[in-house]
Write a structure and sequence with these properties.
heterotrimer; A alpha+beta (504); B mainly alpha (305); C mainly alpha (299); A: 504 residues; alpha+beta; four-stranded mixed beta sheet; 32% helix; C: 299 residues; mainly alpha; elongated
Chain lengths: 504, 305, 299
């Protein structure tokens, strides 16, 4: 009998003896794991979600969007007005200091904005900042931002990823110095950085706390633990207090154990297949044929995958954007799961026997494999190429890919310009290269009138659906698993505000 | 002796140069680094400018020699991914790899040598069979699977050690066992074979006949002779271990050089990959050289060969 | 990755013993018998996988995911349960045996050809040729095999062919070292000198006289390197840079099952044990062949 128990332990671990009480409440330290090695702590030099989390904790943006009401409130700025279609004037908050004591004023704003838009500096967050033309100092606490054409979504960006760096310090140490010792105004200061590996945040007791509260927990200790299982093993041991993005299967099991809080919350993240309609990965590419793209749309059983593999509040989408975003009309043209129709379409397109092609993905391998299985059912033999995000992105920008399974969290910006425009306005990852769609999106991005924007976006999204440039798949939900004594309420923007977390 | 050392040294340098050339060429084929450096959305002119600026348009050999010269002075360029000097990053990560390598080797020696000696002292006994069993299992057990199973048992079910990381010294225990067990079979077999040879030698028989303490014969006289090849094997194995730490570091999320290598490979971070392949090779070459010299010093007959 | 050429090389000499003696020794060698039976069994299973597999190993069933195996309370429809995509685990294990054996065998053959050629050349000619061979071997040994394999697969993409070729081109060192010393010993034998005196052509001497004499050593190393290639393939696939899904490879299955490591660890235990048994059997078989073909009096 004992032998059977021992065998069972290896086959079906049930966590008989694990303890959870070791968590960080005793020493007021919240232990957290990042899945990804963050390439740079300066939010302008990475495109990772983890970077946005650090950005909101260590730095401040000019505005802040209250996650409960969705309203913009002043943060480093106290007031703002559009002087004309392309000039935004902001009044800045007085009496704010950076963690190193440097006082905050207009010079910091002007320096930061002009620095990030200068291509010489090679910042990676162009998608968030390329609407800015320049910034100009009016007086010590007043600045003007000039935009490249009308850009109504400006406030959303100014409330999100665009954080303000200290100009004197930044000029002195450069981005390499900032990589090791970043300085901001935020509710936490960066206590130590081991690049890509370990970050320790300490509460900024002198925080001005206008829009964001003072941090509740004294220390946030962040380590990079790439493997989701290892993260959970550490959660069992009490070495980690909070894990997010836990796959549905594991979250189910954790919830059943009854020792952890498991919360499923919707996110803005969208999954999609990008099809190489423009033929960048090869002119004979079957994906250049509309019928083939429609066949791919019909071949994927999105609802089946959502029900079986994703669960929670995940849901199927039909447009190339997230339903919570402004302008995201759910398209009229939808493609129901219909393998027979897919086969017929392939035959019409001249591929009665199907064809073979490369399929690229960078996350959610089981989902990718499930889709590959479905493509195989209709005769498309897709060979999976699983790469890291940065490598895949580079490849897509350089030479394109026939099919890529991608996801996009829109940097938590609740506006279609953050996703549809990012991918269909002839940018590096635009696989459609459709000038009509690009023109419509440009119109939507630059119109000031809301209904004008909406009309333009709807038209663009309709074309995208009709031409089947993407297979819009689903919105993700995120599973948060935390120790019993952690108090945290997830928000739909998937941003974990460390300063909002407290102990029970 | 001096001649022997300088000959071996010269050979080692030649091997090192060849290896460096291979690792340079191998990664040179990976594609145009200018595109990666120029970044997303870069125009053709920008890419051309980068190519000019970094000298990617020069002949391959010229680039190789420049890379080599800078590498010799410890400058491996900037990581494409982290935008920090590769040498700083590698220097920060090597200690972890060296620690688990050394611990793993320590574990292997502590397990393998006594077992090998006992197996030889009592051939065909249950001890010998046990030693053989440990060796055969060690050869066949895939280290990544072994590591996972150990995590399940000792970390998750028993909660004895952390599942990952090195914040606490206990975090080194499982990686040490996994990496060490991997090197155990070869060392144990060699110890056993060496001891069997020595024990059949005349002077041992004489010593036994004279009634000398068996244990002191075994561990003092016999082992001293049998250990020579084991030492050199251990040095070579240590070199292999550093290269093989990729798997172990990945499983236990140890941020060492092996893990960095794996991550850099999947991130297309060429300068980091080149540096790491070269450095791991250098370790192997260094340890082999050390083993050769040690052998020659312990056993003068080898010097001529 | 044991590297003990010195001792291995020393055990191979002497012309082969009469067949009957060999058979008698083989039948008394329990390790050899065990290895032979297990490897033979797994080979048969691999060859006849299409007939033995109860289901299509690629057929997904999202409504029957991670069904438990029979011995953990599952039903007989899926004897070893199903994986995270509802594919029959037993069928994937059977097809996975093909992948492992095929990769192991082909990679070992490629390395055997490279290593043996180099080794025999070095051992027969000695001098400068030998020095050159030893230099190439040193360079190869200095390259960290796992890292280079990972890098090459990352560059050229993971496929069965790439993995087999990479492993084949990386694992020939032991062949070269052992073949070299074996050839050196054979070289000194009288009949080689006789053949030379008789004016036999060099390829003929190498092929007809030298190769048969080093054959025993060769077979032993082929088995050991086969195990080595199988374990490396599994490690590469485990790291996601080997055979690509949905091809069933035991290493890949462990990698996929790892997702549920903490809850359904039978998903990694089953392919892990299979891999372990196969490697154990191959190694024991190799050791057995060495013992049996070794001249009397040596162990």
């Amino acid at each position: 009998m004992r032998l059977i128990n021992a065998v069972a332990a290896v086959l079906l671990p049930v966590c008989l003896f694990s303890s959870t009480a070791l968590a960080g409440k005793a020493d007021d330290t919240l232990n957290i794991a990042f899945s990804k090695e963050l390439e740079h702590v300066d939010p302008y030099y990475n495109t990772a979600r983890e970077g946005i989390l650090l950005g909101g904790s260590v730095w401040d943006a000019l505005l802040y969007r209250d996650p409960k009401t969705g309203d913009y409130v002043g943060n480093l700025a106290t007031g703002w007005t559009w002087i004309d279609d392309t000039t935004l004037e902001l009044t800045l908050r007085q009496g704010v200091t950076f963690h190193n004591g440097e006082p905050f004023d207009a010079d910091d704003v002007v320096f930061t904005l002009n620095y990030v838009v200068d291509p010489k500096n090679g910042t990676k967050s162009q998608a968030n900042t390329n609407w800015i033309k320049s910034a100009e100092k009016v007086d010590a606490f007043k600045v003007r931002i000039h935009t490249n054409g009308p850009f109504p979504a400006a406030l959303e960006y100014l409330a999100g990823p665009i954080i303000i760096q200290p100009n004197e310090y930044y000029t002195k140490v450069g981005q390499q110095g900032v990589a090791l010792k970043p300085i901001g105004t935020g509710p936490y200061r960066m206590d130590s950085v081991e690049p890509g590996k370990h970050f320790v945040l300490k509460r900024n007791d002198a925080y001005f706390a206008a829009a964001k509260p003072k941090a509740a927990i004294g220390t946030v200790d962040i380590r990079t633990v790439p493997d989701a299982n290892t993260q959970m093993a550490e959660l069992f041991n009490g070495d980690i207090d909070l894990v997010w993005g836990v796959p549905a299967d594991q979250a189910d099991k954790m919830a059943k154990m009854g020792k952890f809080q498991v919360i499923n919350a919707p996110t803005m993240r969208v999954g999609y297949l990008s099809l190489d309609a423009a033929g960048r990965s090869g002119a004979e590419n079957p994906m250049t044929d509309l019928k083939v793209r429609q066949a791919v749309n019909h071949a994927i059983n999105r609802q089946g995958i959502v029900d079986a593999l994703m669960k929670g509040t995940s849901a199927v989408i039909n447009s190339a954007c997230s339903p919570v975003q402004f302008g995201c009309e759910q398209a009229a043209t939808t493609y129901a799961y219909d393998p027979e129709k897919a086969k017929a379409l392939l035959a019409e397109a001249g591929y009665p026997q199907g064809f073979a092609m490369d399929f690229y993905a960078y996350r959610d391998r089981p989902l990718a494999e499930a889709m590959i299985g479905m493509l195989a059912e209709v005769g498309i033999t897709a060979k999976l190429n699983y790469m890291q995000y940065s490598a895949l992105r580079e490849k897509r920008i350089k030479e394109g890919t026939p099919i890529s399974f991608m996801t996009w969290g829109s940097n938590s910006i609740a506006d279609v310009s953050a996703i549809t425009s990012a991918f269909f306005r002839m940018g590096g990852e635009d696989d459609a290269r459709d000038p009509d769609v690009a023109a419509l999106l440009e119109k939507g991005d630059s119109s000031v009138a809301l209904d004008e924007r909406k009309t333009a976006y709807t038209k663009a999204l309709t074309t995208i659906a009709d031409k089947a440039y993407w297979v819009p798949l689903w919105i993700y939900s995120s599973n948060y698993v935390m120790g019993a004594d952690v108090s945290f309420t997830p928000t739909p923007d998937e941003l974990i505000r460390f300063y909002d977390i407290s102990w029970k | 002796m001096l001649k022997f050392i300088s000959m071996k040294l010269g050979l080692a340098v030649l091997v090192a140069l060849t290896v460096s050339f291979i690792s340079f060429i191998l990664l040179y084929m990976a594609g145009d680094p200018a595109v990666s450096i120029a970044g997303e959305g870069a125009t053709a002119e920008v890419i051309a400018a980068v190519r000019e600026q970094y000298g990617f348009n020069r002949p391959l050999l010229a680039q190789y020699f420049e890379w080599l010269m800078r590498a010799l002075s410890g400058d491996f360029g900037m990581s494409y991914y982290f935008k920090t000097p590769v040498s700083d990053m590698v220097a920060a990560r090597l200690p972890v790899t060296m620690t688990i390598g050394a611990l793993g080797m320590g574990f292997a020696l502590v397990l393998a040598i006594p077992m090998g000696v006992l197996a030889a002292a009592f051939p065909n006994s249950w001890l010998d069979r046990l030693a053989l069993g440990i060796a055969v299992v060690g050869q066949a057990i895939p280290s990544f699977w072994f590591g996972l199973i150990l995590i399940v048992i000792f970390s998750v079910n028993l909660g004895l050690v952390p599942a990952s990381g090195t914040r606490h010294w206990t975090g080194y225990i499982l990686p040490m066992i996994v990496l060490g067990y991997y090197a155990t079979p070869a060392i144990m077999r060699l110890t056993r074979a060496g001891m069997l040879d020595v024990l059949s030698a005349d002077y041992i028989r004489t010593a036994r006949a004279k009634g000398l303490n068996w244990r002191s014969i075994l561990f003092k006289h016999a082992l001293r002779n049998a250990i020579i090849p084991v030492v050199s094997l251990a040095a070579v194995q240590l070199g292999f271990m550093f290269g093989g730490s990729v798997v172990v570091e990945t499983i236990f999320a140890l941020h060492g050089a092996g893990f960095l290598a794996w991550e850099s490979i999947s991130r297309n971070d060429l300068p980091t990959m080149q540096a790491l392949i070269l450095i791991f090779s250098m370790f192997y070459i260094g340890f082999t050289l050390l083993a050769d010299i040690l052998n020659a010093w312990l056993d003068p007959r080898l010097r001529s060969g | 990755m044991s590297n003990i050429p010195m001792t291995e090389a020393a055990t191979i000499t002497a012309p082969p013993s009469p067949a009957r003696l060999l058979t008698r020794k083989a039948l008394r060698h329990r390790g050899f018998l065990f290895g032979l039976v297990v490897v033979g069994f797994i080979t048969l299973v691999a060859v006849f996988a299409p007939f033995l597999a109860p289901h299509d190993p690629y057929k997904q069933d999202l409504l029957a995911r991670m069904a438990r195996p029979v011995f953990l309370g599952g039903d007989w429809k899926h004897i070893l349960g199903t994986d995270a995509l509802g594919r029959d685990y037993l069928s994937r294990m059977l097809y996975g045996a093909r992948v492992s054996l095929m990769i192991g065998f082909v990679a070992a053959m490629i390395s055997a050809v490279i290593g043996t050629t180099l080794g025999i050349l070095g051992g027969y000619f000695g001098g400068k040729v030998d020095a050159a061979v030893m230099f190439i071997v040193s360079v190869r040994l200095a390259l960290p095999a796992t890292l280079v394999a990972l890098a090459v697969v990352a560059l050229f993409g993971g496929s069965l062919t790439v993995v087999v070729l990479v492993l084949g081109f990386l694992l020939w060192d032991r062949f070269a070292v052992v073949m070299r010393s074996a050839t050196m010993q054979v070289r000194q034998m009288d009949y080689i000198a006789a053949a030379e005196v008789l004016g036999a052509s060099l390829p003929r001497i190498l092929w007809k006289d030298v190769l048969p004499n080093v054959m025993n050593a060769l077979i032993v190393i082929i088995t050991l390197e086969m195990a080595h290639a199988i374990i490396l393939e599994a490690a590469l696939s485990f790291l996601g840079l080997g055979v690509q899904p949905p091809t069933p490879s035991w290493g890949l299955m462990i990698s996929e099952g790892k997702e549920m490591l903490l809850f359904e660890s039978w998903l990694i235990t089953i392919p892990g044990i299979a891999l372990f048994i196969l490697l154990l059997a191959i190694n024991v078989l190799g050791d057995g062949i060495r013992d049996i073909t070794a001249p009397e009096g040596r162990n």
